[in-house]
Request: fold
Amino acid sequence: MALTKVYLFTSPTCPNCPAAKTFIREFRQERDDFQLIELSTMSHEGQRKAKSFNVMSVPTFIIKGPGYPQAIGLMGVQSSKSMNKYLDLSYGKELPEEPTFREKLRKGIKIGKLKIKL
Reply:
């Protein structure tokens, strides 16, 4: 089975890139079914790849998997929840549909002690 590729685009001058690198390295302890490719946008290869994915800021994760036809782009430092969600999508696992704002209002949204319903 082909592994999903996770590209992490960083820059040595970026203040958030060290946190993104730390996150993805720790995340690999949780889940190791992907190939991690770290690229600096200061390198020729990093610039070429960033251009091919239209990466405009760092840190940016690009997830390219065998079960999903498009590259998935995530900007900024991610959470385990979001990374798991998009890795599953890259392998072709169907994601549950998120309820619309209107559906959430019908069920009720709690704000402090208040509960708002339609």
Remarks:
- The two ends are 47 Å apart (CA to CA).
- The chain has a mean pLDDT of 91.
- The longest strand covers residues 4-10.
- The chain has one domain: 4-90.
